[in-house]
């Protein structure tokens, strides 16, 4: 990367013609203008406040802070969500879970649905928004994440604080969904994810510790022929099928838009 002296940049055009990472997004964020507006006002000279704000954003972004933590928002499915460093940034892969869940039951009937480890709330909130007849419960062991999820919610969701099923000791569900942590300790990709909450990403030496806890404890929390829907790592499918085979049947496997194994749906035998 060429080293740019930010002090020498004054106009929108100066910034746009630099090769600063995410410069269009950062300019849009600072000036509250769309890309088209930036181009049509490209002679605009930034005020010193605007320049200071933009140059701060640029420095943070260059040091690796994800854009979503600078803007404080991320789009997911048909909605925009507030995100903070207490929550994972929603991934497009996770939209697959929404498609699967929405196709599972009749829209006009009532079902009990649980989102375990909801983070910013994307899974529970998106499903609740699409299907107001379903009763959504969402849990997280992080009180700060739960606070963000509550701010993101416009529908009526039952939020509970606690680790996995400790949060819902007396409830049972027709569908339990989770995007749990599933990256293995010391995975090389964790360096790129260093600004996100590590507890939402890492799960023991093979990345399966939390998935194992969920599968071991789930039987008594599922209603008759209820479903488990899990997001998982691209190389974990066979191990998860092994973990499921005693108590589950009707196991279905799904690939994400990159053709990587990414989700499993299974039905409890009882
Ligand atoms: N899919 C995420 C990633 O690899 C990980 C999310 C998770 O562990 N639940 O960046």
UniProtKB/TrEMBL annotation:
Where are the coiled-coil regions? none
Q: The Methyltransferase small domain covers which part of the protein?
A: 105-189
Identify the residues that bind substrate: 179-182
Please provide the record's keywords in A-Z order.
Methyltransferase, S-adenosyl-L-methionine, Transferase
Q: Decide whether keyword S-adenosyl-L-methionine is in the record.
A: yes
Release factor glutamine methyltransferase N-terminal domain segment(s): 16-72
Q: Which reaction does it catalyse?
A: L-glutaminyl-[peptide chain release factor] + S-adenosyl-L-methionine = N(5)-methyl-L-glutaminyl-[peptide chain release factor] + S-adenosyl-L-homocysteine + H(+)
EC number annotated for this UniProt entry: 2.1.1.297
Its BP terms in the Gene Ontology are: methylation
- Positions contributing to S-adenosyl-L-methionine binding: 117-121, 140, 164, 179
Provide the GO MF annotations for this entry. Answer: nucleic acid binding; peptide chain release factor N(5)-glutamine methyltransferase activity
Which Pfam families does this UniProt record tie to the protein?
MTS, PrmC_N
Per the record, the similarity remark reads: Belongs to the protein N5-glutamine methyltransferase family. PrmC subfamily.
Database matches in NCBIfam families: hemK_fam, RF_mod_PrmC
- What is known about what this protein does? Methylates the class 1 translation termination release factors RF1/PrfA and RF2/PrfB on the glutamine residue of the universally conserved GGQ motif.
State what protein this is by name.
Answer: Release factor glutamine methyltransferase
Protein's organism: Vesicomyosocius okutanii subsp. Calyptogena okutanii (strain HA)
């Amino acid at each position: 990367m060429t080293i740019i002296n930010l002090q020498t940049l004054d106009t929108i055009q100066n910034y746009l013609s630099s090769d600063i990472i995410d410069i269009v997004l950062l300019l849009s964020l600072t000036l509250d203008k769309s890309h088209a507006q930036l181009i049509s006002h490209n002679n605009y000279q930034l005020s010193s406040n605007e320049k200071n704000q933009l140059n701060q954003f640029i420095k943070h972004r260059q040091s690796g802070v994800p854009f979503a933590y600078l803007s404080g928002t991320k789009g997911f499915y048909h909605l925009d969500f507030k995100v903070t460093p207490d929550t994972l940034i929603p991934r497009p892969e996770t939209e697959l879970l929404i498609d699967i869940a929405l196709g599972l039951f009749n829209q006009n009937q009532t079902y009990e649905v649980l989102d375990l480890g909801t983070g910013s709330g994307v899974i529970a909130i998106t499903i609740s928004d699409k299907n107001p007849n379903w009763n959504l419960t969402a849990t997280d062991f992080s009180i700060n994440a739960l606070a963000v999820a509550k701010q993101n919610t416009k529908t009526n969701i039952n939020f509970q604080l606690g680790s996995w099923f400790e949060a819902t000791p007396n409830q049972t569900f027709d569908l339990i969904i989770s995007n749990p942590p599933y990256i293995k300790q010391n995975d090389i990709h964790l360096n790129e994810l260093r600004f996100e909450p590590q507890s939402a990403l890492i799960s023991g030496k093979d990345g399966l510790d939390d998935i194992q806890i969920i599968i071991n404890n789930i039987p008594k929390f599922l209603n008759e022929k209820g479903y488990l829907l899990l997001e998982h790592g691209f190389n974990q499918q066979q191990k998860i099928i092994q973990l499921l085979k005693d108590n589950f049947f009707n196991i279905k496997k799904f690939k994400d838009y990159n053709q990587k194994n990414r989700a499993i749906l299974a039905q409890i035998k009882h």
